[in-house]
Amino acid sequence: MSRSLRHIIIVTMLLFGVLKTSAQLAMPDTVCVGAMKHYRVNDPSIPSTYTWSIDGVVQATITNEIVITWMTPGHYVLTVQEHSSGGCDGEIRAGDVYVIPPISVAKDTTVCSNGIPFTWNGIAVNAAGDYRYTTTSSLGCDSTTKLHVTVNNLIMKTDNIAICAGQLPYTWYGQQYNAAGTYTTTVLSTTGGCDTAATLILSITATTASTTDVTVCPSQLPYNWNGTNYNTAGSYQFTTTNAAGCDSIATLNLSINAITTSTTDVTVCSNQLPYNWNGIDYNTPGSYQFTTTNAAGCDSIATVNLTINAVTTSTTDVTVCPSQLPYNWNGTNYNTPGNYQFTTTNAAG
To answer: For the segment 276-303, what is each residue's pLDDT rounded down to a tens digit?
Structure first.
């Protein structure tokens, strides 16, 4: 009686032990790819063995704890069954394991060369290329974002401008320039593309000038210069266009030399006629002109006022006796009758 009771008690205890140590799993479980997880059931001091399976594939581990490194994303069923030392099998316990793949996001961005460097998630982006930023998702898994950066160069534009000095200041993209040189500016895009790096090469053609000094005689007036007649001395300007298309300012300094004149009063006696003056014989009184060229190349008008004084005469009748001979008249002795003349100079010369 006592032996039977003892046998029943042992069996009951064995059955009770198997039920008490049946594997229990905390499921479902979510893990990241590459994670190493420990799954444990019961107290390791209980002398039992265990069969672990993943999707029906029995694993080598027979202890109450299995260590699994999950390398492939997916949904897995992990099972464990306890085998007591008394030869009894426990209930198969199963749990779902979800292996989450790494989160990988690819982004593309295009920037203009004047848009770098810039900072992205604390990373300095200095050139075109791929940049990676890894953080932890809400599930504790790696989340990697790859940023592919494309750098477009600025649009290059060069303006070669040649202007005349009279066109200054020159306005280029809202800025005024007063001197020749090379200037640069960045022109913001209006279409959403890259900005334009603009270069201005500015050349300035100076106004050309010329001066002409002209001296003329009054007889050459009016003096015509560039289609305009001038009658008085002075400085005059004429503006035209030179070969470069800019102003060409010509200045005329006009001088007018006066005609020179001279007057000569001449009085001659009638017996001095003809009177020769500048190669011309004159026989009557009057005013005569002779035109020649002076040292300046202009007319020189000479005038002669010719006066002719007449010869004065006187007649003296003298009767003398022979005893009065010789008869002296004006210093000359006369011994015979006759007509004699004596010429001398009167008051008029």
So the answer is: 999 999 999 999 999 888 888 888 899 9
What does the alpha-carbon distance between residue 207 and residue 237 come to, in Å, rounded to a whole number?
14
CB atoms within 10 A of CB 66: 19
Instruction: Output the DSSP codes for 177-205.
Output: E-S-EEEEEEEPPSSSS--EEEEEEEEEE
d(CA 231, CA 241): 26
Q: How far apart are CA 338 and CA 324, in angstroms?
A: 15
CA distance 112 to 167: 36
Coil, helix or strand for 272? Answer: helix
Q: Return the H-helix or E-strand segment holding 4.
A: helix 2-20
Burial 148-157, CB ≥16 within 10 A → b, else e? ebebeebeee
Q: What pLDDT is stored for residue 12 in this prediction?
A: 25
Element (DSSP H or E) covering residue 14: helix 2-20
DSSP state of 60: S
DSSP SS3 for 315? coil
Cα separation of 292 and 57, whole Å?
Answer: 142
Evaluate if residue 87 carries a pLDDT over 50: yes
Say what the pLDDT of residue 8 is: 25
Say yes or no to pLDDT of 203 above 90.
Answer: yes
Q: Which residue has the tokens 């080598």?
A: 60
Q: Report cis status (omega within 30 of 0) of the bond before 102.
A: no
Distance between CA atoms of residues 316 and 339, nearest Å:
10
**pLDDT digits 0-9 by tens, 3-62:** 332 322 222 222 323 333 344 466 899 999 989 999 998 877 788 999 999 999 999 999
How would you label 179-206 residue by residue, b for 16+ Cβ within 10 Å and e otherwise? ebeebeeeeeeeeeebbbbbebebebbe
Q: What is the C-alpha to C-alpha distance for residues 133 and 265, in angstroms, rounded to an integer? A: 122
User: Rounded to the nearest 5°, which phi and psi values hold at 247?
Assistant: -65, 140
- Report whether the peptide linkage leading into residue 285 is cis, meaning its omega lies within 30 degrees of zero: no
Burial of 290 (0-12, 13-18, 19+ CB in 10 A): middle
* Longest distance between any two alpha carbons in the chain, whole Å: 250
